[in-house]
Amino acid sequence: MTSPETPKQNIFANRSVVILAAVAGLALLTVIILLILLLRPTGENAASDPTLTPFPTGVGSALNEPLVVGIDGNSTITVTTDTPVTLALGGRSFTMQTQAIAADQAWNPNLEDEDTAVWVFGSIVNYVVGIPSSDDNRALLEGLQPGDEMTLTTRGGVSYTFSFDNRQLVSTVDQNVFAQRTPGVTLLMIGDEGNERLVVNGRYLVSEATAGQSNIIQLGESAQLDNIQISVPSVSYMPDRAEVPNGFAFFQIDYEIQNVGLTAFDSNLLRLTLIDNIGNQYALNPTASQIGNFPALNGFLNSGQVMQATAGYQIPLGLSSETMNWVVARSDTGAQIQVNLPFTGSPSAAAASTSITLLQADVASDLTSLILTGQVTNLNNQPIVITETDISLTSPDGSNYLLVATNPPFPWSVPAGQTLQFAVTYQRPMVETAVFNVLSQSFQLSGLR
How many Cβ atoms sit within 10 Å of the Cβ of residue 195? Predict the structure, then answer.
């Protein structure tokens, strides 16, 4: 038979339980503190994540780090970025901060320093930059004139120059200002109250100094762009495809690109710009590129890999340019090459490869009109297009007579190796002789009165 426990024994037992519980609690607290210290991000990691530091005091360690963005809302782009650090325009210089667009697509940062701008993280085709609202800054943007330049410099020391293009008021909820389709810069006035904000657009400018330092090659030649080698064997002018909008034509460039480096190359680092003799610049057109002889360039090129690709552009129909310049530039290093290309779509090029015959000239029965019939034969291996501006009826006194009717209607598209029959009706000249012009070929008419 056991004896009952005394009160003194119960006190010792309870005290042991309390001591053990306290030791266990202290151990658990120690483990939690150690886990917090181990899992807390370091300063370096925090600087590399733009969402952790919306407005870093410096550029941080984002230079040349892989970046995946889908800023146009349609596709995901993998690039290597070089963070912008300064923006210069109108005699002013802005230091640059960085902020990503929020998940709800809202972007209206609050900047207190009017000499500090903010760059939309990931916008590297069309650089989107916010300028804080102030009287001086508004006067600066509103005072920009055609030809005024804006220079953006990156942390890697690469400078990009843009030329003022246009200025407009845009709704604050309009997401098109963030689009990444055309090389350029977009400046947004931020911090204003109301439903609209001032937006300035600039187009990417290939300066003469930069062009003089680049490799300039001709059709069929090759050039090296850092660790990439490019050659252009052929070009095509397409004015008559069903996919081409009215008043335009497609210009396609077939090229071969090879990665001669030791590591994979991200093709999204390349900017492919077409420039005519006047200086107009054309961005890649997805439709014109997709219907080419080869697929459009996309993704990575492995070391040693060779790829044939097509770059397509949409240009005005009847563009008067003897040649076209294709500029391939790297957005990470600023290196570029220029390829001088023949252009068969200009009136002079079409005339050189066209045989035009005037078959008949008749005064209409009403005696007020002159009917001319003839044919155009295309001797080239590319289609040609003749527009209303390519034909005329003039007299020695300088008069230019009214075109009344044409069959077929303009534009006239003549496939390679084919012949087109035409008939045009003009106001009857008031003089005895006149000259009918088609492209650069002229026919003298007499006995008109």
Answer: 9
Dihedral angle, C-alpha 61, 63, 65, 67, nearest 10 °: 110
Q: Is the dihedral of CA 19, 20, 23, 24 positive or negative?
A: negative
393 to 194, 373, 434, 445: CA distances (angstroms):
56, 13, 7, 10
Domains and CATH numbers, the chain: 48-205 (2.40.260.10), 209-343 (2.60.40.1240), 349-445 (2.60.120.570)
| DSSP 3-state of 140 | helix
By DSSP bridging, strand 215-218 and strand 84-89 are unpaired
DSSP state of 6: P
The answer to whether the beta carbons of residues 224 and 333 sit under 8 Å apart is no
Contacts of 372 (CB under 8 A, 6+ apart): 358, 360, 361, 393, 423, 424, 425, 426, 436
Percentage above 70 pLDDT, the chain: 76
DSSP result, 244-258: SPTTEEEEEEEEEEE
* DSSP letter, residue 377: E
pLDDT digits (tens, 9 = 90+) for 91-128: 999 999 888 876 566 677 878 788 999 998 877 778 89
CA atoms within 13 A on the CB side of 364: 17
Q: How many CA atoms lie within 13 A of 38 on its CB side?
A: 6
